[in-house]
Structure formats: structure tokens, C-alpha cells
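Structure ticket #2291
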Amino acid sequence: MYKKTTLVLVALLLAYLPSAAQTYVPPQSKTHVIIANHGLNEFCKVGTSICMPPDPLANFKAYQDVKAGDLNGTNKLIVVYAASMNWPPPPGSNQNVNVWCELLLGSFVCFDFVGSGINGLGRLSYGVDLGDLNGDGNLDAVFSNWGQINRACYFDSIDKFKDANCKEIGPNPPGIGYPPKNPRSTAVALSDLNGDGALDAVFANATQASPNQRLRQNRICWGDPLNTHELYSGSLCEFIADIPAPSPSSPPYERDSWGVAVFNPSSNPDGFILFANRSAKNTVCFISSGSAYGPTGGQVNISCEEFGPTRNTWDVAISDLNLNGLPDAMYANENEDNLFCEFFPHGEPMYCDDYEMTGRDSRGVAIGDFNGDSLPDAIFSNYGNFNQVCFDFFDCKDFGIKDQRRFDLDVYPASLGP
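Resolution: structure written out below.
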């Protein structure tokens, strides 16, 4: 278990590292929490243990992921949910249509995200991330889809998320249709990995035994800084995370990844990517200057390795939880203790240890300031159990309703309301 004595010893060790290692400062603003559930979503205000549904009209769908943020830099809150369900959905069902919500007069108002699906239905979206893809100052949404082509949906200030502004990402894999023709993308993270000014999309893919595993490998779709409106429709997509096979009978890219996070503080090719894997060790991919990956004029090297113990991991979040200036990762694990890992600045794993008092079938993890003391807290969404928040790294408490089918969660500044 990760205990205070371990933290003190590590802090003493890090005191002798060069000052250049101090590369990361955690967010210091108070944060609210929003949680995606299969059923009743939850909105939890900072400093309280009470969680309420943001909008009843947005509930009772199979939500897998949620992201929230400031739409356009004017303190306008937007929330986007990724929805999934068993395929195919019932005739006429909209249970797997993605949803977006905005805050109007202090209340959430939510709308179906029809353009992210097929003929008004959803695409079994398991993940979503937000970022300004086309440089117009508004947040756009990228969805990672299970067995369908991934999508980018652009926000238009007049028409908002209209159908015509949802585009497929990258070239289609060989063949059209449900697996094994298309990837099973479970999560997505946006970041400018190669420093060319355009956001790139990193997709985590689930393998699930299949004769077409190569299509299920994790991948990056590179943004095009010269083609801002159609940023992803013609972008280059490349497989990554070619690491040694766990057994002679397994292909080298079979890792069943369900979460992804990027540490890239300066938008230069000097960060790293973390993949959260089920029934395998987790993966770290190092990004550095080079020419192995990426479009012409924005190429980088990427090399990957496994580390830590084998867990059934659903999600990962990066921060500096112990305030020593180095990036940390917190992993949400199914039916076992969650995991804390310390990294050197360029992504080399230092060590990993079980995180005490948090083995509650966790499906999501985020880092924020949930009690307003300007210190980072780890927040876990737990399936069929109470949520947990760990204040100041050690003091873990339950909050919310116990029996909810929770998946991922996100935090956002409390200044955005409500």
C-alpha cells in the first residue's frame, strides 16, 4: 500500500534531482465533478458529498464517458457525453446517441448529438475528449467508437453541434462494417504531440480476441495545421504501441487498452502517453524528436514499453499528486486496489504501488480540487459502489449514491457553475 513513509523517502530522493525535473504544476482551482452512468448521471458540487442529476432529459442512456469545459473562453460551461449500448439497439432507440449540454440560467439544458451517429442512432461511443480542432475559439468533440469509424464534431456558434459538422476521422480501415473491419476504440485524448500547432487524437483500442488484431491496435491520428476546417477527415492515422508479445501465441500489439492520458506540458515532442490496459501491464509510450511517425513537417519518434503490475485497468489520470514536481499517474482498476505510479519527467516509470482504501470496482479517475484547499485530490467513480475522493492524497472518503452503474468522470472549474 502507498503510505506516508513511502512518500517521505521518495521526496528525499527527489531532492537530489536536478531542478530541471520540476516540470509539472497541478491545477489549483476548485473543481466540480460530473459522472457518466448507465442510467442516472451525477453532478457533484465542490465541498459537498451530494450528487444530483444534471438534467433528467439526459439520463437513462448508456453513458460511458463525459468531458466538460469552457466552450469559448467566456466562462460558458459545456458538457459532452459519450453513449453506448449493446449492438444493435432496439428499433427507433436513441439510447446510444451522444448528448451535449450547456448551462442556461443556472440549469443544464441537453440535446441529442444526432450528427455523431448513423441515421439518427449512435455509434457505440466509449470515449470523448474536447479541444479546439479548427482554431475558431470553440471547443469541438472527438468520439472514440466501438466497431464504427471514430468521429470529430465541430461546434458552430450559430448552429451549435449540427449534423453536417460531424466528420469521420482518418481513412476508413479496409472494409466497411462491424468488427472485425473497424477498430474498437474505447478512449481518446487530444494533444499537440508534434508541436505543429494542430491537435492530434490518440485512441486506445480494445483487442478482444479476433483474427484482425492489427486493426485493434492503439493509434494516433495526426491533425493537419494547414487544413483547419477538415482537420481529421484526411489526416494520417498510424498504429502505435508495438511492444513485445506477452506470450508466444499473442501478437505484439494485443493489449486491450481502455484508457489513455497524455503528458505534454509544452506541446513539444518531449512528452509521453499512458495506456490503461485490462488483464495486462500498462503501457507508456515516449515521444521525442525524430522521423518515425507523423506527417511531413511534424514528425516524431515514439517508443513504447510495459511497466508495473498486471491489473484490470479502466482509466488513467496524470497529475502531480504528491507535489514533488514530477508527473504521477493514478489508475482506476476493476475489483482490486487502484494503482499509483511515479514517473521521471520524460516518462520513465520510477515505481508503482497499490493505493490504499480505493479497491471499489473503479471505472474512472480524475484529479481536481474537490474541497477548495488548492491541493490536488484523486476522485474515483466506482461501479455499484460509493464514489471516492482522496483529499490531499491520503484522506479517502465516500460520496454520492452507492448503487449506480458508473463509468468515467471529469472535473471542471467551479467558477463555470452552476
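Closing remark: The chain has a mean pLDDT of 76.
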